[in-house]
Amino acid sequence: MNDFFRFLRRFARPYVGTISLSIFFNILNGIMTVFSFAFIIPILQVIFGLQQKVYSFKPWGSSDIVDTVTNNFYYFTGHIIESRGESKALALLGAIFVVMTFVKVMTGYMSEYFTIPMRNGVVRDIRNAMYAKILSLPIGYFSGEHKGDIMARMSGDVNEVESSVMSSLYALFRYPMLIIIYLATMIAVSWKLTLFVFVLLPVMGWVMGTVGKKLKAQSLRTMQIGGQILSTIEESLGGLRIIKAFNAEKQMDTRFRGETQSYVRSANAMLRRQALAHPMSEFLGTIAVIVVLWFGGTLILTGSSSIDAASFIFYMTIFYSIINPAKDLSKTGYAVSKGMAALARIDKILDAENPIKDPAVPQSIPEDPRFTPAIEFKGVSFQYDGDDRTVLDNINLSVPAGNTVAIVGQSGSGKSTLVDLIPRFYDVTKGQVLVKGRDVREVKVADLRGLMGNVNQEAILFNDTFRNNIAFGTENATQEEVERAAKIANAHDFIMATPDGYDTMLGDRGCRLSGGERQRISIARSILKNPDILILDEATSALDNESERLVQEALDRLMADRTTIVIAHRLSTIVNADMICVMKDGQIIETGTHADLLALNGQYARLHALST
């Protein structure tokens, strides 16, 4: 329960008002429930003649308020019996009971009514917090996580918190209040019997708590397997072409069946423990009722009790009424344990540390786009977290403003990693990366990335319109500006050929477009942003000749008078670069123009020979 209360402190604070109202109506509901049960005593004592005592009216304002109210209630009831008869007195008590029951059920409804906004609001807040956290985390965080598992936490685990924890809030606010009120009533009726009850309750609580702890551990295991299943599905959908090409359907099917079988075994164990909550609590509750009935009945039969038979029946009614809330509370406890396991997985994301932070006192970046050098690497070395392998080793490179610098090399040489350090997707292990003379760690991340445009090998588009994909990340872009960017990117004509023009939906990841069309939309996005620094990561490597020609024309327009870093496999696309850097094993081993490097007859010349 400590985890649960920490959860409430984190997410329930905005809903203190509705929580307070829910608690208030729960208290009223408990009081009205006790008063309803209290009618058992006058019915037994007065109507059926178990109490022959004659009551006389006591003036209001006596020091013993409870005794005065009880005495006068019996007095007026007796007076009604004498004047109108027992049948009418019973009808009157019944009418009062109906009114009290109506008030009781309405207070119960109102207590749940005010719980609902918090229940749904907290789930919304968790989802929003998780999504915001995922957006804020560095790219490096996701290299060590399965995408499917993260999706499982965003969907399945949040749903589990909603179904297990948030659906239990009403019970957690209501049942403790009822139990406290019932116990207070029991103490008022007979503190000796209640003291005996207190001896039994910790024993039952210990047994139920032990099962609840095991349930939480089993729930966590089940959710982990569920995340792996979703990850396998995501991998299979993304790699379906490869699975079919290599006839690996049976292999993947066997793997998936093994995971689902593990999930079934774990889920069976979890649900069996959860199903044990109801019979266990009912059995333990029955034992408690019988023990108290024996103990209290023995006291009355031997004349050792301070209460009479009717009051004892009322006491047992109240005590038995505790059983249902206690039983439901125990079931709720198991549900909360299950939900806390889901929350533990959610917290792995919410509590993840983001090393890419804004400095306490950020420096400003010069606005002059001609500031030179625009980009500078000084003694830069880099290792990924948890990996001893040096990916970049003592890189020194200066990129003058307005120049185009190409980076080439074999796969795994460190080209993409080097470029990822400029917008701070990662931070250097040693050395400095400077943009316009400022260490990138000394400026705001948003200001730094605001200077840059990216066109990658895989054009990342969203299931939205052409207009919104081109204007993505650029606030208040006008239709004229969007169309101008599309024309420069050679995209306007094919956009206008679609049914709804710029309002046409692109489909998931732009699935309705060809590779070249997707790339030109990505280029139009960067043109609209008008960045000082442009990063091109193999932007034409996956295109056919015609698409490459159109995309290259768009890139040439985009690169004009702009500082550009180009990663390229096709060396024919970078022959006009101001400088070409050749990388191998995380180091820059050659620099120069295309002609200089060919004349050097080194690594670049060998790569050029292989590409022609």
Commentary on this structure:
This protein is of the alpha/beta class and 612 residues long. It has 23 helices and 10 strands. The protein has helices spanning 2-11, 16-38, 40-47, 65-84, 86-113, 116-136, 139-143, 147-165, 169-189, 191-238, 240-245, 249-275, 277-301, 309-350, 415-420, 445-450, 466-470, 479-488, 492-496, 515-529, 545-559, 594-600, 603-611, and strands at 375-382, 392-399, 404-409, 430-435, 438-439, 452-456, 533-537, 563-567, 579-584, 587-592. Strands 6-7-8-3-9-10 form a 6-stranded mixed β-sheet. The longest helix is centred in the middle third of the chain and has 48 residues, at 191-238. The radius of gyration is 37 Å and the shape is elongated.
Average pLDDT, rounded to a whole number, is 79
Going across the major beta sheet, what is the strand order? 6-7-8-3-9-10
Q: How many strands in all? A: 10
* Percentage beta strand: 5-15%
Structural class: alpha/beta
* Principal-axes shape call: elongated
Number of helices: 23
Distance between the termini: 69 Å
> Any low-confidence stretches, pLDDT <50, length ≥5?
none
Radius of gyration: 37 Å
Largest sheet: 6 strands, mixed
Share in helix: 55-70%
Task: Please give a quick description of this structure.
By secondary structure, the chain is of the alpha/beta class. The protein has helices at about 1-10, 15-40, 40-45, 65-85, 85-115, 115-135, 140-145, 145-165, 170-190, 190-240, 240-245, 250-275, 275-300, 310-350, 415-420, 445-450, 465-470, 480-490, 490-495, 515-530, 545-560, 595-600, 605-610, and strands at about 375-380, 390-400, 405-410, 430-435, 440, 450-455, 535, 565, 580-585, 585-590.
